[in-house]
Amino acid sequence: MIDRTSSFHPPILLKNAHLMTLIPRYLPRETSLIALPQESRLFSVEPHSQLQGFCHWQNNRKAFPTVVLVHGLEGSSESRYMRGIAAKAFRSGFNVIRLNQRTCGGTEHLSPTLYNSGLSSDYRAILKELIHHDGLDRLWLVGYSMGGNLVLKAAGELGQSELALAGVAAVCPNINPTVCARALEELRNWIYHRHFVTQLKERLRRKASLFPGKWDLSLLDKIRTISEFDDVYTARDGGYLDGADYYDRAGSRHVLKQIAVPTLIITAQDDPFIPYSMFTVPSIQQHPNIQVVAPRYGGHCGFYQGRRPNEDPYWAENRIVDFLRSMRPD
């Protein structure tokens, strides 16, 4: 088991949740994957919809376990945390697949729809392809933020039906999008909120240029909040009634009780827009397969620690690798 709190020791300055969230994203770090073999691959998840993955295979892929990585909102397979965890997992003896969610990482042309927090079916489809087409028999799902919600939701929906799924890890997952969107729109979180809304608008414009007439952009300039964007565009594009219906149904909280594999959730008690209270309910705390590791500090997917022997400062990445190793058969 991973120590719940005491193993994370942030620098004093980064005990401020906003600094912890922002500063690690800009600190120099080695994220080159040039030494890793890489294969670009398209996974068909629905008719006319594909997800791009970058696969880093060991010499004999069937002889090694596989980690499938899913990024967060407005991230991509090239996000620094995706590259960081990919390098560590590969060096630890895992195949690694870095996925782009629909429309992310320059893949707007690969699907006619937007991405959303409820599209766990994409990752179930990819797992099934890796298992039944590639013959892989031991896989983990790892996701960050929105990606964390997606991998938890996929695992809950699969239940005990896919024996090759060995485990799941999620960092700061938005398991209840209704609560998380409300927190994100608080004034104290304006810097993140503005970034996400701006990026979502820009992405929709790029997407609309590839699919003329599919979305009515006349309201786009009037949108000021992420909930407005999701109500007008994301929800309806995804087949939901409206934003409220989307936020409710997309949350993995509804299916967490069905998770049948070892699951690690890493979150911070001071995360600015993923409220820790979501993870303190008995259904999670007493779940036999879910371990919640929640340090007092960490911000949103920050978890930058002081220098320690034998590991770099990216604490959450290191704990995920510990988790993967602990469940790998000898």
What would your notes on this structure say?
The chain is an alpha/beta fold. The protein has a single domain (12-180, 251-326), classed as Alpha/Beta hydrolase fold, catalytic domain (Rossmann fold). The chain is 33% helix and 14% strand. It is built from ten helices and eight strands. It has an eight-stranded mixed β-sheet, with helices on both faces. Helix 9 links the parallel strand 7 (263-266) and strand 8 (290-293). The model has no long low-confidence stretch (mean pLDDT 96).
What is the terminal separation in angstroms? 17 Å
Radius of gyration: 19 Å
- Envelope shape: globular
Tell me the strand percentage band. 5-15%
The CATH superfamily title: Alpha/Beta hydrolase fold, catalytic domain
Q: Look at the structure and give the CATH class.
A: Alpha Beta
What topology does this entry show?
Layout: H1 17-22, E1 39-46, E2 49-56, E3 66-70, H2 80-91, E4 95-99, H3 120-132, E5 139-144, H4 146-158, E6 165-171, H5 177-184, H6 190-210, H7 226-237, H8 243-250, E7 263-266, H9 282-285, E8 290-293, H10 315-326
Parallel strand pairs: 3-4, 3-5, 5-6, 6-7, 7-8
Antiparallel strand pairs: 1-2, 2-4
Helix pairs in contact: 2-10, 3-4, 7-8
Short précis:
Helix content is 33%, strand content 14%. It has 330 residues and is α/β, with parallel strands linked by helices. The protein has a single domain (12-180, 251-326), classed as Alpha/Beta hydrolase fold, catalytic domain (Rossmann fold, 3-Layer(aba) Sandwich).
